[in-house]
Design goal:
mainly beta; Methylamine Dehydrogenase, Chain H; 4-stranded antiparallel sheet; about 0% helix; about 50% strand; globular
Length: about 190
């Protein structure tokens, strides 16, 4: 595929036949890798090198729908998470391998709509039960009760984690103290 403006070949990430499109995509913190989740019945996970377009790895994500994929924001890490219906899985990008989240009594399993990594390595996942799940590696560290109802949006930016829920609140969370610094009502 050629870019008409630059006259150079564009990189193209080729998914196999039967993928049925992409549900979620994320770029690594250093911009070298891209992870994708397809719409296949097995919700396959793919990792590609951005520069070459080469497939680094492919693995089955989960039989349940996956809503989000997010890379770690910690410099030098190429770990990422996939989150979905009754699903949270933590991955190493190269070589591609995944490990289901371990709840170990720190919280009840639920469905997850979204996830965000802070630059301290902690992963925050928004639960359908209104809780924010905080993960250290693949182990659940704690849950936070900052919303009343489904948590549908998470983002890490400029040292803060932002969460949005069905309750109409946007919480700005300090990822070190795990406390809400401010709340905006919509």
């Amino acid at each position: 595929m050629w870019d008409a403006q630059s006259g150079q070949k564009k990189q193209r990430f080729k998914l196999p036949k039967g993928s049925r499109g992409i549900d979620s995509i994320a770029m690594s913190q250093d911009g070298t890798l891209v992870a994708m989740v397809d719409r296949h019945d097995q919700h396959n996970v793919y990792v590609f090198e951005v520069a070459s377009g080469q497939l680094v790895g492919k693995d089955v994500g989960d039989v349940n729908k996956i809503f989000d994929v997010c890379f770690s924001a910690k410099a030098g890490e190429n770990r990422f998470v996939t989150a979905g219906v009754k699903h949270i899985k933590f991955w190493d990008a190269n070589p591609l391998s995944g490990k289901k989240g371990i709840f170990a009594g720190a919280g009840e399993p639920t469905s997850f709509a979204c996830a965000a990594y802070a630059d301290n390595g902690l992963c925050f996942a928004g639960g359908a039960n209104g809780l924010i799940y905080v993960w250290n590696g693949s182990a659940l560290k704690t849950t936070l009760s900052f919303h009343q109802g489904f948590v549908g949006a998470m983002r890490f930016s400029e040292g803060k984690v932002y969460s949005g829920g069905k309750d109409g609140k946007l919480n700005i969370i300090n990822p070190e103290s795990l406390s809400v610094e401010s709340t905006i009502d919509f």
